[in-house]
Write a structure and sequence with these properties.
33% of the residues lie in helices and 20% in strands. It is of the alpha/beta class. α6 links the parallel β7 and β8.
Length: 424
Protein backbone atom coordinates (compact mmCIF):
# COMPACT_ATOMS: atom_id res chain seq x y z
CA UNK A 1 0.00 0.00 0.00
CA UNK A 2 2.98 2.34 0.17
CA UNK A 3 2.94 4.90 -2.69
CA UNK A 4 6.42 3.84 -3.76
CA UNK A 5 5.74 0.10 -3.70
CA UNK A 6 4.42 -0.13 -7.26
CA UNK A 7 7.25 2.05 -8.58
CA UNK A 8 9.85 -0.01 -6.76
CA UNK A 9 8.17 -3.20 -7.91
CA UNK A 10 8.25 -2.11 -11.54
CA UNK A 11 11.86 -1.05 -11.20
CA UNK A 12 12.81 -4.45 -9.82
CA UNK A 13 11.27 -6.13 -12.85
CA UNK A 14 13.12 -3.89 -15.29
CA UNK A 15 16.49 -3.36 -13.57
CA UNK A 16 18.63 -6.37 -12.82
CA UNK A 17 22.08 -4.85 -12.45
CA UNK A 18 22.09 -3.55 -8.88
CA UNK A 19 24.14 -5.75 -6.56
CA UNK A 20 22.16 -4.48 -3.57
CA UNK A 21 19.00 -6.07 -4.98
CA UNK A 22 20.46 -9.49 -5.75
CA UNK A 23 18.31 -11.24 -3.15
CA UNK A 24 15.16 -9.66 -4.50
CA UNK A 25 16.19 -10.49 -8.05
CA UNK A 26 16.59 -14.12 -7.07
CA UNK A 27 13.02 -14.04 -5.78
CA UNK A 28 11.86 -12.48 -9.05
CA UNK A 29 13.60 -15.20 -11.04
CA UNK A 30 12.24 -18.04 -8.94
CA UNK A 31 8.69 -16.72 -9.11
CA UNK A 32 8.70 -16.17 -12.86
CA UNK A 33 10.44 -19.44 -13.68
CA UNK A 34 8.74 -21.73 -11.18
CA UNK A 35 6.09 -24.22 -12.33
CA UNK A 36 3.55 -22.64 -9.99
CA UNK A 37 3.64 -19.44 -12.04
CA UNK A 38 2.42 -21.29 -15.16
CA UNK A 39 5.07 -19.43 -17.14
CA UNK A 40 2.98 -16.29 -16.71
CA UNK A 41 4.20 -12.89 -15.60
CA UNK A 42 1.78 -11.94 -12.84
CA UNK A 43 1.38 -9.14 -10.31
CA UNK A 44 -0.42 -10.48 -7.26
CA UNK A 45 1.64 -13.50 -6.18
CA UNK A 46 4.87 -11.83 -7.28
CA UNK A 47 4.08 -8.60 -5.40
CA UNK A 48 3.02 -10.24 -2.12
CA UNK A 49 5.91 -12.69 -1.99
CA UNK A 50 8.52 -10.14 -2.97
CA UNK A 51 7.51 -7.51 -0.46
CA UNK A 52 6.75 -9.95 2.36
CA UNK A 53 10.13 -11.66 2.14
CA UNK A 54 12.41 -8.95 0.75
CA UNK A 55 10.98 -5.63 1.90
CA UNK A 56 14.36 -4.46 3.05
CA UNK A 57 16.37 -5.76 0.11
CA UNK A 58 16.10 -2.67 -2.06
CA UNK A 59 18.70 0.06 -2.15
CA UNK A 60 17.29 3.56 -2.31
CA UNK A 61 19.67 4.18 -5.20
CA UNK A 62 17.42 2.05 -7.39
CA UNK A 63 14.48 4.40 -7.38
CA UNK A 64 15.93 7.72 -8.61
CA UNK A 65 17.96 6.12 -11.39
CA UNK A 66 15.25 3.95 -12.87
CA UNK A 67 11.82 5.47 -12.52
CA UNK A 68 9.28 3.43 -14.50
CA UNK A 69 6.95 6.37 -15.11
CA UNK A 70 7.88 7.43 -18.62
CA UNK A 71 6.12 9.90 -20.88
CA UNK A 72 5.40 7.70 -23.88
CA UNK A 73 4.33 9.52 -27.04
CA UNK A 74 1.08 8.12 -28.46
CA UNK A 75 -1.11 9.32 -31.27
CA UNK A 76 -4.26 8.62 -29.25
CA UNK A 77 -3.43 8.38 -25.57
CA UNK A 78 -0.51 8.01 -23.18
CA UNK A 79 -0.41 4.76 -21.22
CA UNK A 80 2.40 4.73 -18.65
CA UNK A 81 1.71 1.95 -16.18
CA UNK A 82 3.45 -1.32 -17.12
CA UNK A 83 2.92 -4.11 -14.60
CA UNK A 84 0.12 -3.13 -12.20
CA UNK A 85 -2.45 -4.99 -10.16
CA UNK A 86 -5.18 -2.81 -11.69
CA UNK A 87 -4.36 -3.65 -15.31
CA UNK A 88 -5.99 -6.32 -17.48
CA UNK A 89 -4.61 -9.82 -17.84
CA UNK A 90 -3.06 -10.29 -21.29
CA UNK A 91 -2.28 -13.20 -23.58
CA UNK A 92 -0.29 -13.14 -26.81
CA UNK A 93 -0.99 -15.95 -29.27
CA UNK A 94 1.79 -16.55 -31.78
CA UNK A 95 4.40 -14.80 -29.65
CA UNK A 96 7.38 -16.37 -31.43
CA UNK A 97 6.42 -14.97 -34.86
CA UNK A 98 7.44 -11.62 -36.32
CA UNK A 99 4.22 -9.85 -35.29
CA UNK A 100 4.13 -11.65 -31.94
CA UNK A 101 7.59 -10.34 -31.14
CA UNK A 102 6.50 -6.87 -32.22
CA UNK A 103 3.52 -7.12 -29.86
CA UNK A 104 6.02 -7.41 -27.01
CA UNK A 105 8.08 -4.48 -28.30
CA UNK A 106 5.03 -2.23 -28.59
CA UNK A 107 3.61 -3.24 -25.21
CA UNK A 108 6.93 -2.48 -23.54
CA UNK A 109 7.57 0.78 -25.37
CA UNK A 110 4.08 2.09 -24.63
CA UNK A 111 4.13 0.77 -21.03
CA UNK A 112 0.80 -0.91 -21.57
CA UNK A 113 -0.72 -1.67 -18.14
CA UNK A 114 -1.17 -5.34 -17.40
CA UNK A 115 -1.77 -7.52 -14.37
CA UNK A 116 -0.41 -10.71 -15.90
CA UNK A 117 0.91 -11.83 -19.27
CA UNK A 118 0.73 -15.23 -20.95
CA UNK A 119 2.96 -15.97 -23.94
CA UNK A 120 1.36 -18.64 -26.11
CA UNK A 121 2.54 -20.54 -29.16
CA UNK A 122 2.56 -24.00 -30.70
CA UNK A 123 3.67 -27.13 -28.88
CA UNK A 124 6.92 -26.95 -30.84
CA UNK A 125 7.70 -23.53 -29.36
CA UNK A 126 6.52 -24.28 -25.82
CA UNK A 127 9.32 -24.04 -23.31
CA UNK A 128 11.30 -21.49 -25.28
CA UNK A 129 12.23 -18.22 -23.60
CA UNK A 130 11.68 -14.81 -25.17
CA UNK A 131 12.92 -11.49 -23.80
CA UNK A 132 10.43 -8.99 -22.42
CA UNK A 133 11.19 -5.97 -20.24
CA UNK A 134 14.66 -7.20 -19.30
CA UNK A 135 13.35 -10.68 -18.47
CA UNK A 136 13.46 -14.05 -20.19
CA UNK A 137 9.87 -15.30 -20.25
CA UNK A 138 8.78 -18.84 -20.91
CA UNK A 139 6.40 -19.66 -23.76
CA UNK A 140 3.40 -21.87 -23.01
CA UNK A 141 1.64 -24.26 -25.38
CA UNK A 142 -1.64 -22.88 -26.70
CA UNK A 143 -4.54 -25.03 -25.46
CA UNK A 144 -8.28 -24.72 -25.02
CA UNK A 145 -7.72 -23.78 -21.37
CA UNK A 146 -5.18 -21.03 -22.09
CA UNK A 147 -7.68 -18.17 -21.84
CA UNK A 148 -9.14 -18.75 -18.40
CA UNK A 149 -8.89 -15.44 -16.59
CA UNK A 150 -7.52 -13.60 -19.64
CA UNK A 151 -9.07 -10.17 -20.28
CA UNK A 152 -7.41 -9.30 -23.62
CA UNK A 153 -5.86 -11.75 -26.09
CA UNK A 154 -3.77 -10.52 -29.01
CA UNK A 155 -3.74 -13.09 -31.82
CA UNK A 156 -1.23 -13.33 -34.66
CA UNK A 157 -0.81 -17.01 -35.45
CA UNK A 158 -2.66 -17.36 -38.75
CA UNK A 159 -6.28 -17.74 -39.74
CA UNK A 160 -6.66 -21.41 -38.86
CA UNK A 161 -5.46 -20.86 -35.28
CA UNK A 162 -7.69 -17.81 -34.93
CA UNK A 163 -10.72 -19.75 -36.14
CA UNK A 164 -10.00 -22.62 -33.77
CA UNK A 165 -9.12 -20.66 -30.63
CA UNK A 166 -10.62 -17.18 -31.08
CA UNK A 167 -14.21 -18.22 -30.33
CA UNK A 168 -12.98 -20.36 -27.41
CA UNK A 169 -11.26 -17.33 -25.91
CA UNK A 170 -14.38 -15.20 -26.39
CA UNK A 171 -16.52 -17.87 -24.72
CA UNK A 172 -14.21 -17.70 -21.70
CA UNK A 173 -14.69 -13.93 -21.44
CA UNK A 174 -11.65 -12.67 -23.33
CA UNK A 175 -11.70 -9.77 -25.76
CA UNK A 176 -9.76 -11.03 -28.77
CA UNK A 177 -7.92 -8.64 -31.11
CA UNK A 178 -7.16 -10.82 -34.12
CA UNK A 179 -4.53 -9.98 -36.71
CA UNK A 180 -5.55 -12.67 -39.21
CA UNK A 181 -8.12 -12.48 -42.00
CA UNK A 182 -10.34 -15.08 -40.31
CA UNK A 183 -13.08 -12.72 -39.10
CA UNK A 184 -12.51 -9.41 -40.90
CA UNK A 185 -15.50 -9.58 -43.19
CA UNK A 186 -17.87 -11.27 -40.73
CA UNK A 187 -21.01 -9.29 -39.95
CA UNK A 188 -21.05 -8.01 -36.39
CA UNK A 189 -17.28 -8.14 -35.94
CA UNK A 190 -15.72 -4.66 -36.00
CA UNK A 191 -12.77 -4.12 -38.34
CA UNK A 192 -10.89 -1.28 -36.69
CA UNK A 193 -8.17 1.28 -37.31
CA UNK A 194 -8.40 3.48 -34.18
CA UNK A 195 -7.56 6.71 -36.02
CA UNK A 196 -10.15 5.92 -38.70
CA UNK A 197 -13.23 4.18 -37.29
CA UNK A 198 -12.91 3.80 -33.54
CA UNK A 199 -16.68 4.08 -33.14
CA UNK A 200 -17.06 0.62 -34.71
CA UNK A 201 -16.00 -0.92 -31.38
CA UNK A 202 -17.83 1.48 -29.05
CA UNK A 203 -20.06 -1.32 -27.73
CA UNK A 204 -17.11 -3.44 -26.52
CA UNK A 205 -15.48 -2.78 -23.15
CA UNK A 206 -13.66 -4.62 -20.39
CA UNK A 207 -15.95 -3.58 -17.59
CA UNK A 208 -18.85 -5.83 -18.53
CA UNK A 209 -16.58 -8.92 -18.49
CA UNK A 210 -18.10 -10.24 -21.71
CA UNK A 211 -15.94 -11.73 -24.42
CA UNK A 212 -15.82 -10.16 -27.88
CA UNK A 213 -13.81 -10.26 -31.07
CA UNK A 214 -12.25 -7.30 -32.89
CA UNK A 215 -10.46 -7.75 -36.21
CA UNK A 216 -7.24 -6.00 -37.20
CA UNK A 217 -7.35 -5.01 -40.89
CA UNK A 218 -4.80 -6.21 -43.42
CA UNK A 219 -1.49 -4.34 -43.27
CA UNK A 220 -1.88 -2.80 -46.73
CA UNK A 221 -5.36 -1.58 -45.86
CA UNK A 222 -4.20 0.05 -42.63
CA UNK A 223 -1.31 1.87 -44.28
CA UNK A 224 -3.50 3.01 -47.16
CA UNK A 225 -6.45 4.24 -45.11
CA UNK A 226 -4.29 6.03 -42.54
CA UNK A 227 -3.31 8.38 -45.37
CA UNK A 228 -6.49 8.45 -47.45
CA UNK A 229 -9.19 8.68 -44.76
CA UNK A 230 -8.44 12.32 -43.79
CA UNK A 231 -8.88 13.24 -47.46
CA UNK A 232 -11.99 11.07 -47.75
CA UNK A 233 -13.58 12.97 -44.86
CA UNK A 234 -12.98 16.28 -46.62
CA UNK A 235 -14.01 15.52 -50.20
CA UNK A 236 -15.21 11.88 -50.24
CA UNK A 237 -13.35 9.43 -52.46
CA UNK A 238 -15.31 8.04 -55.40
CA UNK A 239 -12.55 5.82 -56.80
CA UNK A 240 -9.18 4.64 -55.50
CA UNK A 241 -6.41 2.87 -57.45
CA UNK A 242 -3.69 1.32 -55.28
CA UNK A 243 -0.38 -0.25 -56.30
CA UNK A 244 1.50 -1.81 -53.40
CA UNK A 245 5.20 -2.58 -53.01
CA UNK A 246 5.19 -5.06 -50.16
CA UNK A 247 8.15 -6.03 -47.99
CA UNK A 248 9.33 -9.45 -46.84
CA UNK A 249 7.92 -8.75 -43.37
CA UNK A 250 4.45 -9.38 -44.77
CA UNK A 251 5.46 -13.01 -45.24
CA UNK A 252 6.66 -13.35 -41.65
CA UNK A 253 10.00 -13.98 -40.03
CA UNK A 254 10.80 -16.90 -42.36
CA UNK A 255 10.37 -14.72 -45.45
CA UNK A 256 12.59 -12.04 -43.96
CA UNK A 257 15.27 -14.62 -43.20
CA UNK A 258 15.05 -16.07 -46.70
CA UNK A 259 15.45 -12.64 -48.31
CA UNK A 260 18.65 -12.15 -46.33
CA UNK A 261 19.86 -15.64 -47.22
CA UNK A 262 19.08 -15.22 -50.92
CA UNK A 263 20.85 -11.87 -51.04
CA UNK A 264 24.02 -13.43 -49.69
CA UNK A 265 23.71 -16.41 -52.04
CA UNK A 266 23.19 -14.33 -55.18
CA UNK A 267 26.10 -12.03 -54.33
CA UNK A 268 28.29 -15.11 -53.86
CA UNK A 269 27.21 -16.52 -57.20
CA UNK A 270 25.20 -19.36 -55.66
CA UNK A 271 21.67 -20.43 -56.65
CA UNK A 272 19.13 -18.83 -54.29
CA UNK A 273 17.21 -20.92 -51.78
CA UNK A 274 13.48 -20.58 -52.54
CA UNK A 275 11.49 -22.23 -49.75
CA UNK A 276 9.01 -19.49 -48.83
CA UNK A 277 8.26 -18.08 -52.27
CA UNK A 278 8.56 -19.95 -55.54
CA UNK A 279 10.27 -16.97 -57.17
CA UNK A 280 13.72 -15.64 -56.44
CA UNK A 281 13.12 -12.75 -54.06
CA UNK A 282 16.53 -11.09 -53.86
CA UNK A 283 17.09 -8.53 -56.66
CA UNK A 284 13.63 -9.30 -58.05
CA UNK A 285 9.97 -8.46 -57.63
CA UNK A 286 6.83 -10.41 -58.39
CA UNK A 287 3.06 -10.44 -58.05
CA UNK A 288 1.91 -11.00 -54.48
CA UNK A 289 2.06 -14.66 -53.53
CA UNK A 290 -1.57 -14.96 -52.38
CA UNK A 291 -3.96 -17.08 -54.43
CA UNK A 292 -5.37 -15.63 -57.64
CA UNK A 293 -9.16 -15.63 -57.78
CA UNK A 294 -11.41 -16.28 -60.81
CA UNK A 295 -11.81 -12.52 -61.37
CA UNK A 296 -8.03 -12.18 -61.87
CA UNK A 297 -7.39 -10.38 -58.57
CA UNK A 298 -5.35 -12.10 -55.89
CA UNK A 299 -6.56 -12.38 -52.32
CA UNK A 300 -4.36 -9.53 -51.09
CA UNK A 301 -5.87 -7.17 -53.65
CA UNK A 302 -9.41 -8.15 -52.78
CA UNK A 303 -8.69 -7.54 -49.09
CA UNK A 304 -7.98 -3.91 -49.93
CA UNK A 305 -11.24 -3.67 -51.88
CA UNK A 306 -13.51 -5.31 -49.32
CA UNK A 307 -11.90 -4.00 -46.15
CA UNK A 308 -11.92 -0.40 -47.37
CA UNK A 309 -15.66 -0.56 -48.00
CA UNK A 310 -16.33 -2.07 -44.57
CA UNK A 311 -14.10 0.34 -42.62
CA UNK A 312 -15.51 3.40 -44.39
CA UNK A 313 -19.01 1.93 -44.29
CA UNK A 314 -19.22 2.85 -47.96
CA UNK A 315 -20.27 -0.05 -50.19
CA UNK A 316 -20.22 2.16 -53.29
CA UNK A 317 -16.61 3.38 -53.24
CA UNK A 318 -14.73 1.92 -56.21
CA UNK A 319 -11.38 0.36 -55.33
CA UNK A 320 -8.89 -1.52 -57.48
CA UNK A 321 -5.45 -2.75 -56.45
CA UNK A 322 -2.30 -4.43 -57.74
CA UNK A 323 -0.09 -5.94 -55.05
CA UNK A 324 3.60 -6.67 -55.65
CA UNK A 325 6.32 -8.22 -53.49
CA UNK A 326 9.56 -6.21 -53.51
CA UNK A 327 12.93 -7.14 -51.95
CA UNK A 328 12.62 -4.80 -48.95
CA UNK A 329 13.03 -6.26 -45.47
CA UNK A 330 10.20 -4.42 -43.66
CA UNK A 331 7.77 -1.55 -44.35
CA UNK A 332 5.38 -1.43 -47.31
CA UNK A 333 5.03 1.33 -49.91
CA UNK A 334 1.87 2.22 -51.84
CA UNK A 335 1.17 4.41 -54.83
CA UNK A 336 -2.40 5.69 -54.55
CA UNK A 337 -4.51 7.51 -57.12
CA UNK A 338 -7.73 9.14 -55.89
CA UNK A 339 -10.82 10.53 -57.55
CA UNK A 340 -13.01 12.77 -55.36
CA UNK A 341 -16.65 13.84 -55.37
CA UNK A 342 -15.63 17.42 -54.53
CA UNK A 343 -12.54 19.34 -55.66
CA UNK A 344 -9.36 18.76 -53.68
CA UNK A 345 -6.27 20.76 -54.62
CA UNK A 346 -2.83 19.56 -53.60
CA UNK A 347 -2.21 22.38 -51.10
CA UNK A 348 -5.42 21.58 -49.25
CA UNK A 349 -4.51 17.89 -49.29
CA UNK A 350 -1.03 18.61 -47.94
CA UNK A 351 -2.47 20.75 -45.15
CA UNK A 352 -5.03 18.09 -44.18
CA UNK A 353 -2.41 15.36 -44.12
CA UNK A 354 0.04 17.45 -42.10
CA UNK A 355 -2.59 17.67 -39.34
CA UNK A 356 -3.76 14.05 -39.55
CA UNK A 357 -3.26 11.77 -36.57
CA UNK A 358 -0.51 9.20 -37.07
CA UNK A 359 0.61 10.70 -40.40
CA UNK A 360 3.86 12.49 -41.28
CA UNK A 361 4.26 14.42 -44.54
CA UNK A 362 7.62 14.01 -46.34
CA UNK A 363 7.13 15.99 -49.53
CA UNK A 364 10.14 18.10 -50.48
CA UNK A 365 10.19 18.59 -54.25
CA UNK A 366 13.24 20.84 -54.27
CA UNK A 367 15.47 18.15 -52.79
CA UNK A 368 13.55 15.20 -54.27
CA UNK A 369 12.93 13.90 -50.76
CA UNK A 370 9.88 11.68 -50.32
CA UNK A 371 8.93 8.68 -48.14
CA UNK A 372 10.96 5.48 -48.28
CA UNK A 373 10.49 2.17 -46.44
CA UNK A 374 13.67 2.87 -44.46
CA UNK A 375 12.20 6.15 -43.22
CA UNK A 376 9.31 4.36 -41.54
CA UNK A 377 10.91 1.08 -40.47
CA UNK A 378 10.23 0.56 -36.74
CA UNK A 379 8.26 3.83 -36.69
CA UNK A 380 4.67 4.27 -35.52
CA UNK A 381 3.62 6.77 -38.16
CA UNK A 382 2.67 6.46 -41.82
CA UNK A 383 4.60 8.78 -44.14
CA UNK A 384 2.98 10.49 -47.14
CA UNK A 385 4.59 12.34 -50.05
CA UNK A 386 4.51 12.90 -53.83
CA UNK A 387 1.29 14.84 -53.23
CA UNK A 388 0.20 16.17 -56.61
CA UNK A 389 -2.90 16.74 -58.71
CA UNK A 390 -3.71 14.02 -61.22
CA UNK A 391 -3.26 15.67 -64.62
CA UNK A 392 -5.56 13.11 -66.25
CA UNK A 393 -8.50 14.45 -64.23
CA UNK A 394 -9.58 18.06 -64.58
CA UNK A 395 -10.86 20.47 -61.96
CA UNK A 396 -8.82 19.22 -59.00
CA UNK A 397 -10.92 16.09 -58.72
CA UNK A 398 -7.91 13.75 -58.81
CA UNK A 399 -4.84 13.34 -56.59
CA UNK A 400 -1.75 11.10 -56.49
CA UNK A 401 0.09 10.27 -53.26
CA UNK A 402 2.87 7.90 -52.21
CA UNK A 403 2.63 6.25 -48.80
CA UNK A 404 5.03 4.18 -46.67
CA UNK A 405 4.32 2.40 -43.39
CA UNK A 406 5.90 -0.29 -41.24
CA UNK A 407 3.97 -3.45 -41.98
CA UNK A 408 4.86 -5.19 -38.73
CA UNK A 409 4.22 -2.15 -36.57
CA UNK A 410 1.31 0.12 -37.62
CA UNK A 411 0.28 -2.49 -40.18
CA UNK A 412 -0.16 -5.12 -37.46
CA UNK A 413 1.14 -5.02 -33.87
CA UNK A 414 0.80 -1.33 -33.07
CA UNK A 415 -2.73 -1.15 -34.47
CA UNK A 416 -3.76 -4.12 -32.31
CA UNK A 417 -2.23 -2.64 -29.17
CA UNK A 418 -3.91 0.71 -29.88
CA UNK A 419 -7.22 -1.17 -30.05
CA UNK A 420 -6.42 -2.78 -26.70
CA UNK A 421 -5.57 0.64 -25.23
CA UNK A 422 -9.00 1.92 -26.22
CA UNK A 423 -10.56 -0.90 -24.16
CA UNK A 424 -8.98 0.37 -20.94
Amino acid sequence: GHPLSLSLFTVCVCVCSSSSSSTAMASVSSLLDSPSSSSTIGFSSFHSSLFASHHGAFSSSLYPSASPWRNVSSSRRVVTMGLTEHGPSLAIVGVTGAVGQEFLNVLAQRDFPYRSLKLLASKRSAGKHVPFQERECKVEELTEESFQGVDIALFSAGGSISKAFGPLAVAQGSIVVDNSSAFRMDDGIPLVIPEVNLDAMHHINLSNKQGALIANPNCSTIICLMAVTPLYRHAKVRRMVVSTYQAASGGGAAAMAELGQQTREVLEGKPPTCNIFKHQYAFNLFSHNSSVMPNGYNEEEMKLVKETRKIWNDPYVRVTATCIRVPVMRAHAESINLQFEKPMDENTARDILSKAEGVVVIDDRSSNNFPTPLDVSTKDYVAVGRIRCDLSQGGNYGLDIFVCGDQIRKGAALNAVQIAEELL
